[in-house]
C-alpha cells in the first residue's frame, strides 16, 4: 500500500484556465526566510547543485531534484514539509512533493 504522502493525486498538472491547480498545502502558508545561501549538505561534502529550493515550511535551503544529491527531496522525506519554492531570482515557482506537481 502506498502512503498518503507518497501517492500522487490524479489532478492534471495544469488546470483548464492555464493556472496551476489548487493545492491545500498552500492554505495558511506563512512567508519564510531562507536559512542559507546554498545547500549546506552539498557544501559539507564539496558537491555541486543545479538549482536551489527553499522549504516553504521552515526555510531550509537545499539542492533541487535535478541536482545529483536531491537534498530538497530528502528534506521532505525526513520532515513531511511538502512545499518548496525556487530561489532563482524572479522565479515564483513552487513544487508540492505530495501532489508531485507545480502549485
Automatic annotation (TrEMBL):
GO molecular function: zinc ion binding
InterPro entries on file: Znf_RING/FYVE/PHD (IPR013083), Znf_UBP (IPR001607)
Record protein name field: UBP-type domain-containing protein
Lineage: Bacteria, Bacillati, Actinomycetota, Actinomycetes, Kitasatosporales
Entries under Gene3D superfamilies matching the protein: Zinc/RING finger domain, C3HC4 (zinc finger)
Domain UBP-type: 21-103
SMART domains, sorted: ZnF_UBP
Cited Pfam families: zf-UBP
Amino acid at each position: 500500500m502506498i502512503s498518503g504522502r507518497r501517492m500522487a493525486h490524479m489532478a492534471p498538472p495544469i488546470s483548464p484556465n492555464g493556472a496551476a491547480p489548487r493545492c491545500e498545502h498552500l492554505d495558511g502558508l506563512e512567508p519564510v526566510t531562507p536559512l542559507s545561501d546554498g545547500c549546506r549538505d552539498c557544501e559539507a561534502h564539496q558537491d555541486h547543485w543545479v538549482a536551489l529550493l527553499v522549504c516553504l515550511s521552515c526555510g531550509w535551503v537545499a539542492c533541487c531534484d535535478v541536482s545529483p544529491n536531491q537534498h530538497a527531496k530528502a528534506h521532505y522525506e525526513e520532515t513531511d514539509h511538502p512545499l518548496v519554492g525556487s530561489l532563482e531570482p524572479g522565479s515564483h515557482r513552487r513544487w508540492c512533493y505530495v501532489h508531485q506537481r507545480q502549485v
